[in-house]
Amino acid sequence: MSIFRLFYSKTPKIKDTNGKVLPNSITSLEKVKIGGIDQSLLIRGHDVNNPVLLFLHGGPGNSEMGIAYLFQRRAEELFTIVHWDQRGAGKSYSKKIPEETLNIEQFISDTHELIQLLKKRFNKEKIYLLGHSWGSVLGVLVVQRYPELFHAYIGMGQVVNMIENEKISFQYTLDAAKKAGNKKVVNKLESLEPPYVGDLKALRFQRKWLARYGGALHNEKSMMVLMKKGLVSPELSLRDLPGFIKGMIKTLKVMWGQLAEINFLEQVPELKIPVYFFVGRYDYQVPFELVEIFYEKLKAPKKSLIWFENSGHCPNFEEPDRFQEVLISEVLQEIRWK
User: Fold this and answer.
1) Mode of pairing for the β-strands spanning 150-156 and 26-34
2) The one catalytic residue among 9, 40, 133, 311
3) pTM here?
C-alpha cells in the first residue's frame, strides 16, 4: 500500500479503451454542506447527462461507499450514481455532530436538501432513489413525503416492521443454534428479548450468530468480509477507518429506539411512484417474508418484487452482476422509453 493510500483517497477516472478520460464522465469524492454540516459524496458516471441514482446506505451509520466499486461499475455506464455518507457516518463522521440531530426527521431533511442540490447540479427534474436496510426506512419516508422528486424507488433489504423484524430474525438464529447443537449460544439467546431497545450488546450478539448461520450474507459467515473489501477500496484510506467505526457505533446507539417504532404496514399504505423491492431469498436480517406482506398490501402505480436467489441481506454485494442488470433492464426503463 502506498503512502498516498494510507492517508488519502481518490476515485479512479473513467477511461475509454484507449486510456483517455471520457469527456462527459464524472468521478468525484467531495464534501458538500447539508443540514449545516459537511457531508461526503462519491459521484461516478460515464455521462453526466444520464439519470441520477442516489444510494442511501444502511446502518444507521454504516457507510457503503467503500464497497461501491464492487457492484456498480457496469451501472455507471447508464446512471450517474451518488453515494452519500449520511450525517455521522463514514467520511461524514465528526464528534462535533450533536446527538440530538441524529433523528429520523433530520435525516429526511438532509436527504431532501441533497436531492435538491443534485437536481440543480445535473439539471434533472427527477432522480432514482435506492435505499438499503436502514436506507430503505429513510427512502420510503422521503418518497412518501416528496413523490414528485423521483422516477422510481428501489428498496433493498427493505425494512417493514421493526418489532416483527427482530422477532423473526431472533427465531431464525435460535432455531439455527439449536440445530447446530450450540447449547451455549442457545442459552444466551434465550435470555435476550428482541427488539433489544437499550441493550445493543444483545443486538450485536444476535447479529453475530445470525451471520454465522447464514441469515445475513448467504455465502459468507461474517459481515467482516465487507469491511475487508472496503480496506482495499480506492475510495477509502486508512485514516477514514476510525470515523467509519465510531460512526456505526454512535449512530446506531442513538437511533435504534427510533427504528423500533417503524411499521410501514400501518404507516405507509401507498407510494405514488413505481416501486421495486430487491429481495434476498436468504435475508433474515431484514426478513424477506415481511417484504412480501408489504408488497402485497402497498398501493403504487407500479410495483415489482424481484428475488435474488443466492443472496441474503446484500444482493448488491452478493450478486453484483444481477443487481446491475436489474437496475438497467427493469428499473431504468421507467424513463428510457417514455
Assistant:
1) unpaired
2) 133
3) 0.95
